[in-house]
Write the structure tokens for this entry.
Amino acid sequence: MEIELLDVLTLDNNQEYIVGSIAKKDNNTYYCLLNKEINDDIIICQRKENDKLTEVNNHELIKTLLPEFYKSIKESHLLDEFLKNLPDFEENA
């Protein structure tokens, strides 16, 4: 099963998460998952050989992944679309 940006995954905790970013490092694939309902529930997962997602708790590894996640978001142009569709707050002030 291929996991792509913006896919919605239901994890073992029965919560739905959006794939917000994807990073590859040292022949491993990592995902930044954002809970659809709880804004501050973010999980970093690694995809294992059996396609199972395993949560990453290694803070040093996560720090090295953050620039890769940012690069993934930037290259996807998702932020451009988001910003383009934001209302102009100055017009409404």
DSSP finds two helices and five strands in the chain.
